[in-house]
Specification:
This protein has about 130 residues and is of the alpha+beta class. It has helices at about 5-10, 45-55, 60-65, 80-85, 115-125, and strands at about 15-20, 25-30, 40-45, 75-80, 90, 95-100. Helices cover about 30% and strands about 20% of the residues. A hairpin with a 5-residue loop joins strand 1 (about 15-20) and strand 2. Mean pLDDT is about 85; it is low at about 125-130.
């Protein structure tokens, strides 16, 4: 079995994935600073989510120079209480953030909407801040 066949067994290209326990996993990306007025959670496939997650592990400037260096600005937080056991938020510290929900809901339905953050950033004059 080659690598592409193994990936197909794991990543199905779906926006929602049902587990053996009936839980629905949903995947979301925000492309741009979280406080940016044009940034929003976008539902993506698990393959898109995984690719962005893996890129966030590495320093973007290092990747441009074809070097694999850890990303010192990356963060990851568990969101079990908000979005179900195993759910989490991650950010590359600048341009891309992701959320995996395990309760079948969107981040906004769980209290992680970007509108409040953006309104707060606008009121404080910091619309370009990273996560």
């Amino acid at each position: 079995m080659n690598t592409a066949e193994r990936v197909r067994l794991v990543l199905t290209g779906e926006h929602e994935v049902r587990t053996s326990e009936g839980v629905v996993l949903r995947f979301f990306l925000a492309r741009g600073p979280l406080a940016g007025p044009d940034t929003a959670w976008e539902q993506v496939t698990e393959a898109e989510f995984q690719h962005a997650y893996e890129l966030a592990l590495f320093d973007p400037q290092g990747l441009d120079a074809q070097l694999l260096l850890p990303n010192p600005h990356r963060m990851q937080l568990a969101l079990d209480a908000l979005m179900g056991p195993g759910s989490f938020f991650w950010s590359d510290g600048a341009a891309v953030s992701g959320v995996l929900t395990t309760n079948g809901k969107a981040p906004e339905e769980c209290g992680l909407g970007l509108a409040a953050l953006q309104a707060n950033a606008g009121a404080s004059g910091d619309a370009g801040g990273a996560s």
